[in-house]
Amino acid sequence: MLFLHGACLDPASPYPVLRSCPDGETGISMNSHFSNANWVGIPHRDFFYNGLLKPDEALTKTAYTATKQEAQRRNLYTAIRFQDWTAEGKPADVSDEQWKYEISIGTDYAVSFGRARYCARLPISQEQLKQVITFLNDRNSLYQNGPKTFETNVLQDNCNHLTHNALAAADFWHELPVHQFILKAALTFPVPKNEIVNLLDQTQRHDIGDLHALYHDRLTRKSLLEKDWLPDTPGVILDSNPVKTPNEIYNTQLSLIFYDDPLLGHYHKAFDRYLNQPRYHDLKANLLWYQTLYAKIAAERRPLSWWLKKEPSGFVAFYNAYYAWLENQQNLVQRGLTMLTENASLSTGSMPALPGRAPVGPEPVNGP
Question: Which of 141, 150, 158, 197 is the most exposed place for a label (fewest CB within 10 A)?
């Protein structure tokens, strides 16, 4: 699952089609229930995560029923056909349309009703957001009018493939192909909790002050020169959210797992490392950390002539773009700190987009 700030559903289309809109908030959910769509969009952060509940409210049977009714009133699935097998177990007095909302609550919308989740917030540029939107719309267009029917499975095309490849469309990392040969897919398929670590690892894949490493990484060089963006950016936040409690509907004893290397155990160690760093949980600590880092990079700047003794001529454009980016980042951090000072109530959960950035996230890791 994916949450996009700066994107909304086209109100003229009953079928889910995304477009850019500055104040838009849309949750993206992929589900094996669908036959003519890869994903559906759920407008508004609160409803996507909490349905009609306020953050501190318990989930009661009354609230559960009211949220289902509200979802149907919003016509979330009007243009979405469900797989025939989803009708199994449907009571005779429940309509097909009502059943869609019964089997999807806690999965596509009101996801905190039945899920604990870890989320990663990744601020990206407006241009990258447009690329994510285009990718998602193209994915759905494969199934909207047939004859192709959407089919998903854990190894070859699961909900984490969709999230991973949406970010790949923005040149964050390399694409993970769907429908690979089954044996290869079994070794490479994305796992929810692992993907959070992979995302945070990717933002840290190079020392942000190492111009040589940044320049010689094709994706990094491209993202800076074409999008004025580098993956290690202020506002990358790790957030954890338990399932709703008290809870009259779902089991709340949930635990997300890693598929880890039994010898090296990278994922457990890396996840613990990120959990133990305040800058991944507290926005002020995050901004202050980057303020210090950027000041250090600026103070250690070497002249272009020094670099050209060891780098190719193409390095000139990268060098100039890098230090223009650094100045913009320093200004961004300062504006962010000013915003926090002016509004002490801001938290990682309610944080608006930092100036000039559209956060893609939080991103729930426990996809369907």
Answer: 141
Whether the CA torsion 202, 204, 208, 211 is positive or negative: it is negative
What is the C-alpha to C-alpha distance for residues 153 and 285, in angstroms, rounded to an integer? 40
Q: Bridge-partner residues for 59, per DSSP?
A: 247
Q: How many other CB atoms are there within 10 angstroms of residue 209's CB atom?
A: 17
Owner of token pair 């700047």: 301
pLDDT tens-digit readout, 308-353: 999 999 999 999 999 999 999 999 999 999 999 888 755 444 444 5
Rounded Cα gap, residues 166 and 131, in angstroms = 8
Contact in structure between 2 and 27 (CB atoms under 8 Å): yes
Q: How many CB atoms lie within 10 A of CB 277?
A: 14
> What Rg value do the Cα atoms of the chain yield, rounded?
22
E strand spans, the chain? 2-9, 18-29, 40-43, 117-124, 237-241, 358-360
Consecutive H or E run containing 60: none
Number of Cβ within a 10 Å radius of residue 69: 13
DSSP 226: H
Identity of the residue numbered 250: Y
Give the chain's count of helices (H) and strands (E).
13, 6
Asked if residues 176 and 188 have their Cβ atoms less than 8 Å apart, the reply is: yes
Is 123 within 8 Å of 236 (Cβ atoms)?
yes
State pLDDT tens for residues 177-207: 888 877 776 767 667 778 889 999 999 999 9
Strand partners, 82: 34
Rounded-to-integer distance, Cα 143 and Cα 146, Å:
5
